[in-house]
Amino acid sequence: MISTISSTRFPQLLAQIHNNNKLKHFQFYCYAPIRNAPLSAVSTTNSTCVASNFENQIHEIERLCEQSNIEAAILLTEQLIKDGFSIPLQTLLLLLQCCAGSRSLASVQRAHYLITRSQPKTSTLVFSYLALIYYKLGGSTDARQLLDKMLQKPRPGNKRRETYEKVRELHREIREIGYVPDTRYVLQDIDKEAKEQSLMYHSERLAIAFGLISTPPGTTLRIMKNLRICGDCHNAVKLI
């Protein structure tokens, strides 16, 4: 599969993922213990014995992940899926985190396959996280292909694309009148271009862009945020 994401758009998307507050909270969720989580066995057989065995197998996958026994954890997960069981998403995320920690691109690819097999309706947040893992492990091609699939999903009635286009338009306009991105406010270890893209997609600017495309010209916009605005956004908003 050839990626349709341009070399310019690719770092923009990665910067958006880096800057996604939901993703930061989501990463903590990946580490959460699952031993006491309710488990539901979905199989062709609904006996109590099968359900109990399924729960034991799920806990065994968790134990193997804790011991960094990735191969055994993957094989057991594969077998459960083959037997017709739906693996809880949190178990799959624990496995993914274990694979990512090993810095094995091949293991991450296998975990990705298991997620799509067992949880085909997984949220875009999971795949955003996965794309970031691919990129950090040098799997740029995998990251691009995953982002391609995410962008190709239809979003009827959604102004997301139009909002981001407006943000870029505003960015070009304020650059022309002297705005210079202050990358000191980006703490992630990414290159300068990605830092500038990250600043451009801060939530305040997205909110302003959405407001501008959703209201008649001249409408007063009041943007409220429960966190302190960064210095770069403060400078940019004054120019907008």
Automatic annotation (TrEMBL):
It comes from the Eukaryota. This is Pentatricopeptide repeat-containing protein. It comes from Rhynchospora pubera. GO terms for molecular function: zinc ion binding. InterPro entries: DYW_dom, TPR-like_helical_dom_sf. Residues 178-240 form the DYW domain.
